[in-house]
Amino acid sequence: MTSVIHASFAKPSKTAAKTTVVALHCSLGSGRQWSKLADELGRSHQFIAPDISGYGTNTWALDLPLTLAEEVRCVSGHLNDAAGPFHLVGHSYGGAIAFKIATDPAYAHRVRSLTLIEPVLPTLLRETDSDRRLHARFAQLARDVSENLWNGSVLEAIDQFVEFWNGSGPQDPLPATTRLRMIERADKLAFDFSAALAEENLTIAAASLRVPTLLFSGGTSPYFTQRIVRRLAAIVEGAEVRHLPEAGHMLAISHASVINPEIAKHIARADELAGLSLGLNQIDLGEPPLRFERRAVSDRVAEEKS
Prior knowledge:
The chain has helices at residues 35-41, 68-81, 93-102, 129-150, 154-166, 176-185, 188-198, 202-207, 223-235, 251-254, 256-283, 297-305; strands spanning 4-7, 20-24, 46-50, 86-91, 111-117, 213-218, 240-244. By secondary structure, the chain is α/β, with parallel strands linked by helices. A seven-stranded mixed beta sheet has the order 1-3-2-4-5-6-7, sandwiched between helices. Strand 6, helix 9 (223-235) and strand 7 (240-244) form a beta-alpha-beta unit. The chain is globular.
């Protein structure tokens, strides 16, 4: 059985249906990660925060996902529960899944906004020498963690994983309860690494996004994910970036009081823009509907490299 946060505190408006927010958590986490965001948004939106396959109470599957496309299929039931358009929010590995949903033709037309908090999209970093070094370091981490898991050295695998994601932040010991929870779900890490490293054509996919996009990064996070956010900001048309210098990779939790109001504003603006665009189409002004300017992928990539 899958554990899901559902929040919807207000009665639906008679004039407009409530849109849905789907929030996807990081590796070794659960949907409970988003409880504060659910409190922030549940009065204005239906809020769904499922446990990703292999985490929380969603551990019944015999075959765990090996690709992001398979991860999308695993959460498709929750996406189908959302009536009409929905907003996507994703953190870390959950951000990679959210990105995959937003660029999947089966769902792209229903995505109203996208918020990515340090998404793990390593194959974006294969176009320059400096970026390739970051990709290589992450791929080596994946091999080391997976090998330790295969050999039964779960504690070593967890320590390697946590040390990497602590970045330049303090290397504080994990609470015993947190460490135990990580150990219980550690086997899924090898699958997450495989899925993230197998994804191809991310630059083209990112350039295809046509929804309001908000990106977050932390200044003490690994430079690996900070760089991914910068690459996305250069490629995704109209993307907005919020960088928190003192935050680490777990900023979705540690800095929720700063991030959540920004997410709420981003979602509200996207709903407003969608309503305005719909109104213009209905009264038929003879003008094209509101949309983001299209530019060639090569133009954006060249801009980013310069």
